[in-house]
TrEMBL record:
The keyword Membrane applies. Keywords: Membrane, Transmembrane, Transmembrane helix. This is Uncharacterized protein. The chain crosses the membrane at residues 12-31.
Amino acid sequence: MQTISRPLKLILSLLVLLNIILLVFVGYIFLNSKHGIISADRIDIKDGTGKNRIVIANVDHIPQPIIDGKKFQRAYAPAGLIFYDKNGDERGGLAITDNDETNLNALAFDYQNADAIGILAQDNKHDNYFRAGLMINDKDLSGQPGQNINRINLITENGNASLVMKDNNEVPRIILKVDSLGNPSFEMFDKNGKVSWKQ
C-alpha cells in the first residue's frame, strides 16, 4: 500500500482548509444578506487579462463609453448593463434612464465604433409624447467614433406606427405608415426628400 508523501498531505490539507474558508465566506454572505440578495453599486465581470467584459452598475457608477481604447462622454448616465469586447471596447448594453424629463430604456448592440441596432422605449413625464421601436444602422466607414448611418426604423410614436427606410444619406425614401386613426399610407421620396409617389 502506497503512502501519501508529506508535501502532498500538506497541499491536500491546505486545499481542504481553503474550501472550508470559502464555504464559511459564502455562507456568511447569504446569511447576512436579506433573503440571499447581494447589494452592490457596481459589478465588473472581467476576463483573464483583467479587462471588463460585462459591467452592471447604477447611475452613479456607470462607466463612460470606451471606443478604440479611448473614453468618451456618455450622453445620459443610465443604470444598466454594458458589454465589452476582448479589447475592452464597448459593444452594446442595456440602459435604463430616468431623469426629470423622460423615461428612456434602450437595448443596443454595437459595431466596433458606434451603435448598430437599438431597441428603445420612451415616455415623457410632462407631456403625452411616447415612442417605442427598433433602429438599424449602417456602419460609418469613416472610422469616426460614435458615427453611424440610420437606415431602418420600425417605430410607434404617439400612436402612429411606421416603417421608415432611408438611403445612405439618412434621407427617408420609403415610409409605410398607419396613423393613430387607423389610416394607412405608403410614400416614396426622391433623393432630396420630396414625395415622388404616395398612396
